[in-house]
Design a protein that fits this description.
By secondary structure, the protein is an alpha/beta fold. The chain is 51% helix and 13% strand. Helix 8 crosses helix 11. It is globular, with a radius of gyration of 20 Å.
Length: 292
């Protein structure tokens, strides 16, 4: 049993924290909206009022927040987590914030704090079942220390040194954005050419876009896009991809085009829907969160 602080109880954070509690760890949780922590309190977790309070009694702290700005506030804001971290503590940064932010956080923490960046691939069902793919970056020593905890969430792969996990997550999500917008454009073309939507999806399911089509087919056919991975977060991730490309001098026009479509869907009000609602924007339909 390990004393763990888990900060960030969003769609992914809540089931991940629940798995830690079920595994027998002594868990303290914090969330900006305190009401979200109540089910975990009822299940046996301690609820902290501030990030520093959550971290003080913990050997390991886990952050799972929305974006780099939120991470900065949680770690270095008033009563931030950094105040509670000292030599021998371990920070597992599991948000999608990009490698530059991870390295910046690590550089400003007190000496002796180990940091592993370990963002995840997968959505709410995989988080609930412990079937996420964890992409970990950090030193060999820090990774081995983190591995038993990370394995609570799914399969774990050590992809390189500090920042490598965060970098690999951007690579993964660049393909996610490209795939779903390619599906949308293919369907838009099929519609324009007078092809049957169901037949088109049948054919695309057997193409290189098969996994994206198969996983989102029901939503595309019904126009219902209940959020598993919110479109607002996908748009944020593609902005991080664009920033990473610019900082390394790479021109990535496919990623840029995917970002443009996601931003259009976001502007159209689809931010709280699943990221696949971008298909509705591309084909000119009105998405909704659930079948009524």
């Amino acid at each position: 049993m390990t004393k763990i602080a888990f900060l960030g109880l969003g769609q992914m954070g809540t089931p991940m924290a629940t798995r830690l509690l079920a595994a027998g760890h002594e868990l303290t949780v914090w969330n900006r909206t305190i009401e979200r922590a109540e089910p975990l309190r009822e299940a046996g977790a301690t609820v902290a009022g501030m990030p520093a309070e959550a971290g003080r009694a913990a050997d390991v702290a886990i952050t799972m927040v929305t974006d780099p700005e939120a991470l900065e506030r949680v770690v270095f804001g008033p009563d931030g987590l950094a105040e509670a971290l000292g030599p021998g503590r371990l920070l597992l940064e599991m948000s999608t914030v990009g490698p530059d932010e991870v390295r910046s956080i690590a550089e400003r923490l007190p000496d002796g704090v180990d940091v592993v960046d370990a963002p995840v691939a997968g959505s709410v069902p995989q988080a609930t079942e412990g079937e996420l793919k964890v992409l970990a970056g950090g030193s060999d020593v820090a990774f081995e220390r983190a591995r038993p905890i990370l394995e609570t969430f799914g399969s774990v792969r050590h992809v390189g040194g500090p920042g490598a996990g965060a970098a690999m997550k951007l690579v993964v999500n660049s393909t996610l954005g490209a795939a779903i917008t390619a599906v949308g454009e293919a369907i838009a073309l099929a519609d324009a050419l007078g092809l049957d939507r169901g037949t088109t999806l049948d054919v695309l399911s057997g193409s290189q876009l098969g996994p994206a089509v198969s996983s989102k087919r029901e939503s595309i056919q019904t126009g219902s896009y209940p959020p598993r991975f919110k479109l607002s977060l996908a748009a944020k991730d593609l902005r991080l991809v664009a920033d990473a490309a610019a900082s390394t001098g790479r021109d990535l026009p496919v990623a840029a085009a995917a970002r443009t479509w996601l931003e259009r869907a976001l502007a159209a009000g689809a931010g709280e829907l699943d990221y696949s609602a971008v298909v509705a924007t591309i084909v000119g339909e009105e998405p909704h969160p659930a079948v009524e």
